[in-house]
Design brief:
Blueprint: E1 2-8, H1 21-28, E2 32-38, E3 51-52, E4 62-63, H2 65-75, E5 84-93, H3 96-104, E6 107-112, E7 117-118, H4 120-125, E8 129-132, H5 142-153, E9 186-187, E10 190-191, H6 201-219, H7 221-224
Bound molecules: adenine.
């Protein structure tokens, strides 16, 4: 079973949206598991302090190496081979290919950063792989972890009703998804393209392919580039 172990300073944010809809139903059906651990349980002193000012000066606070290291060591058995991810805007951008790999595996450890970051020595010392969900800065890694888990969970066998819907959508083909229509046939003077009502499946497949290519060219030419 896909097991997610999540380290955070904001445990109350979970399961949050992951407890709803597709991922929530799958959680209830035990198709995956979510363990949320409070980093502050390893905080120091009476105030359970987890952070301190950056060495060398500068704004903000950095999560201490000893605190996060202890939280990780407590969460992980030595033989635990799941990828250890640190959600960070500095990480490698998350793509569907990596999502597919993760979803096919045993699960993941997800560390949610806060403040200005985490002490670099924990990243090296515990082999954390930094992952970004996009070129913008969130106030913490929690929402990023939810995004990553949502993307993985829907690919776990049995989670999605129709098998095909996982592989026919945007990115799985390297293209954006073609436009979809349903009833009514005419709406506010706009009608469904005739080809989709023709019953000619070869023609429909060709139209969809061309539309997917057109949209990708217009919106995401980077996906078409050979070394994209
Ligand atoms: N934490 C803050 N911003 C982030 C981002 N863009 N991706 C992953 N984690 C983050």
């Amino acid at each position: 079973m896909f097991r997610a172990t999540l380290l955070t300073l904001m445990p109350d944010m979970f399961p949050g949206p992951l407890g709803q809809s597709l991922s929530g139903d799958a959680l209830a059906r035990e198709l995956w598991a979510l363990e949320v651990r409070d980093i502050r349980a390893h905080g120091l002193g009476r105030h359970r302090s987890v952070d301190d000012s950056p060495a060398g000066g500068g704004p903000g606070m950095v999560i201490r190496a000893d605190v996060l290291g202890a939280a990780l060591d407590d969460a992980l058995a030595p033989e635990d081979a799941r990828p250890r991810l640190l959600m960070s805007p500095r990480g490698k951008p998350l793509r569907q290919e990596r999502v597919r790999e993760l979803a096919a595996g045993e699960g993941a450890i997800l560390v949610c950063g806060r403040f200005e970051g985490v002490d670099e020595r924990v990243i090296a010392g515990r082999g954390l792989e930094e992952v970004s969900i996009g070129d913008y800065v969130l106030s913490g890694g929690e929402l990023a972890a939810m995004v990553l888990l949502d993307a993985c969970v829907r690919l776990i066998p049995g989670v999605m009703g129709k098998l095909a819907s996982g592989s026919e959508e945007s990115f799985e083909s390297g293209l954006l998804e073609y436009p979809q229509y349903t009833r009514p046939r005419d709406w506010e003077g706009r009608s469904i393209p005739d080809v989709l009502l023709s019953g000619d499946h070869a023609k429909i497949a060709r139209w969809r392919r061309e539309e997917a290519e057109r949209l990708t060219r217009e919106r995401r030419p980077d996906l078409l580039a050979p070394d994209g």
